[in-house]
Amino acid sequence: MSIKDNLQNILQELGAIQLVAVTKYAAPEQIQELLDCGYFVLGENKVQAAALKAEQYKQYPVQWHLLGHLQTNKAKQAVRIFEVIQSVDSEKVAAAIDKEAAKVNKCQKIFVQVNIGREPQKSGVAAELLADLLVYCRNLKNVQLLGLMAMAPDLPDKEQTKPYFKEMKELFDRYAAPYGLEFLSLGMSGDYPAAVQEGANMVRIGSKLFTGE
Ligand SMILES: *Cc1c(COP(=O)(O)O)cnc(C)c1O
């Protein structure tokens, strides 16, 4: 199946749920094919790679989402490229974004990333520290806190990811109204059906879109 077919099938399946098309492993001709379909909400996990692609595809109205950990020394570049930074997981990162956004008169949209599986190799704030980080972000002038993001542990049986997504939905339901959160970004190619069933309203899909798997 072509990327166009994959895109149509995924969008139809998702309905009102937002899709971030993750281009980090896609070849240039694959990204071009997606852009030719008129799909412009794209995700990358590294600032450097996104900078190259943002330049390469600057004639398109791409909304870039940062999905990977942000080093504070890349905050300056990040606020110039990304529509949304989904991976804020510390006060330090949030403060660096706020400072650089102020310099360019931007209000940077951010999500807070939660390490819902408590996995040492993954980034994200621990669930019990989430409230403190939300308070901190809300008080920053040049960031707009808009959502929560998480990755479930990579389990062979995708049914087993559901408790993690459920826990994220509970956190979202608790904090959405008080903090004005709109997006719950959960689920990737392997586990997005489970994420959607548990209440995600944004998913991030790469390999299923570009390779069909
Ligand atoms: C790479 C990545 C994705 C997409 O992964 P696929 O398995 O290719 O769909 C989603 N979210 C994050 C945070 C990623 O780094």
From TrEMBL:
Its cofactor is pyridoxal 5'-phosphate. Residues 3-210 form the Alanine racemase N-terminal domain. Gene3D superfamilies: Alanine racemase. Transmembrane segments: none annotated. The modification N6-(pyridoxal phosphate)lysine is found at residue 24. Keywords: Pyridoxal phosphate. CDD domains: PLPDE_III_YBL036c_like. GO terms for molecular function: pyridoxal phosphate binding. Belongs to the pyridoxal phosphate-binding protein YggS/PROSC family. Pyridoxal 5'-phosphate (PLP)-binding protein, which is involved in PLP homeostasis. This is Pyridoxal phosphate homeostasis protein. It comes from Termititenax aidoneus.
